[in-house]
Structure formats: C-alpha cells, structure tokens
UniProtKB/TrEMBL annotation:
Coiled coil: none annotated. TPR repeats lie at residues 34-67. Residues 215-250 are annotated as: Disordered. Residues 223-235 have a biased composition (Low complexity). Keywords: TPR repeat. This is Uncharacterized protein.
Length: 250
C-alpha cells in the first residue's frame, strides 16, 4: 500500500503513533511533502505534542504560505500554546485546555443536519464581547454551548461554564422574555475564529401561551423586542447595576 494511504488509514483508525512514524518516513524521502507535514502535525497534536504540531504546521506554511489547513490549525494552536505557557488558569480551565490540545473532546460534534434552518424557530447570530482568546480558539463547529440568562443580558458558555461571549442586546431581551414564559432553546457553535464566534440557536419547546409567536421573527416589521411581557414591566437598571452584571458575566 502507498505510504500516504497507510498514514491516512492509521489516522482514521486512531493509531496516531503509527501515523506519526509513517509520515516521518515519508518526510525522510521528501522533506517538502506538505500533505505529510500536515498529517504529521495532526498526529503530534493527537499525541499531546503541541510544540511539535505547531512547528510542523509552520513548515507547511514555509512551503505553501496559503495552505488553508495549516493556517487555521496554527491560529488555534498558537493561542492555546500562549495560554498554556503564560497564563495562570484554574483547574477547570486546564481540563478544557488539555481536551482541546489532545482532541479528546467530550462534546457531540456537528452532524450533517444540525444546522437545518426552520423559519421562526432557528437563528444564526454573532456573539459580542467575546471572552478569552484561548477559550474561543478551543471551540469546534457543532459543539454544544449553553445560554446563561442574566437580568438584562444572555451570556453563552461552554459546558464547563467558561464565558464565550453574549447575545446582542435586542436578541438578549427577547430570549430572556421567552424563556421566562416557558420556551426552551439549545445552541451550537456554527463557526469560531479569533475575534468572531457565530452560534446556531434552535427552539426545542414552545410554551402553550406562546403558540403562534415565533422565537425569531423573519419579517422586517417584527423586531426582537416585539414580544417582551416580562421586560416591559421592569424599570431600566442603573448604570451601576449594569456594570456589576457585566463584571459577573466575564
């Protein structure tokens, strides 16, 4: 069998040590084989050798500066490496970092039909006020994340409770109102890169009193605040309480 196919077969089967050795052998004969370098970097990553993975992805970019696989992987890994070496984190965060580096994620990743749009019941939206770069860099497309409603904001967190970002203010107000009335939602990472996180929201349960009221209006005349029975009766909070809430989210 062709060595490249052997390396791919070993990787697909999860035999990362074998995949690493095969790709090293390929590179002994052709040090500029960028596909083998990418495969070797991935194998190193799966074996917990973060520095070697970064080094090999950099070699790919020296050969092919526009290699998309190496560019995306390196962006994530350098952020993780910076956090690993230079930032003191809690044991909870270290656990997430380790899983992100080793590829041993406990979350369910995207399926082919995860992002099917349903008018009024689903929405893709960008988060604002993003959290730490290393948290954002560890996210995968299709990864479940969780809404954390506050008095006037809705934060989005990982399964470990790490802050990712928050919904825009108008969407936050609407979601808070609908959740208070009994609706339920799930959300998943749609895409994530440094400086940008998009999530996919899906309504999973509609309260009886909200029948006929879409969670996410699709017409221009309907705004996110068009249904806010709980919010309308509340007084606006003071600047001091807003600041306190923001600090609690982060």
């Amino acid at each position: 069998m062709d060595p490249a196919l052997q390396a791919i077969d070993a990787a697909v089967s999860g035999r990362w040590s074998q995949a690493e050795e095969i790709n090293k052998q390929i590179l002994e004969e052709n040090p500029c084989d960028k596909e083998a370098l990418n495969r070797l970097a991935r194998a190193s990553l799966e074996l917990g050798k973060l520095s070697k993975a970064i080094s090999n992805y950099k070699k790919v970019l020296k050969i092919d500066p526009y290699n998309n696989i190496a560019q995306k992987a390196l962006q994530k890994l350098e952020a993780l490496e910076a956090n690993k070496e230079g930032i003191k984190v809690s044991e909870k965060k270290k656990g997430v970092l380790t899983r992100a580096i080793n590829g041993d994620r406990t979350t369910t990743l995207a399926t082919s039909n995860l992002f099917i749009e349903e008018p009024g019941r689903t929405k893709t939206t960008s988060l604002i006020h993003l959290g730490e770069n290393w948290v954002v860099s560890s996210l995968d497309s299709g990864e479940p994340v969780y809404l954390a409603p506050h008095a006037h904001r809705v934060s989005v967190e990982t399964d470990n409770g790490l802050y990712i970002g928050r919904l825009a203010d108008d969407l936050s107000r609407r979601i808070i109102s609908l959740i208070r009335e009994g609706n339920k939602y799930v959300c998943f990472v749609r895409s994530a890169s440094l400086g940008s996180v998009k999530i996919f929201l899906r309504e999973t349960f509609k309260a009886e009193k909200l029948q006929g009221i879409p969670s996410f209006p699709t017409t221009e005349k309907q705004s996110y605040s068009s249904y806010s029975p709980s919010i309308s009766s509340e007084n606006e909070s003071s600047d001091e309480s807003e600041s306190q809430e923001a600090s609690e989210e982060v």
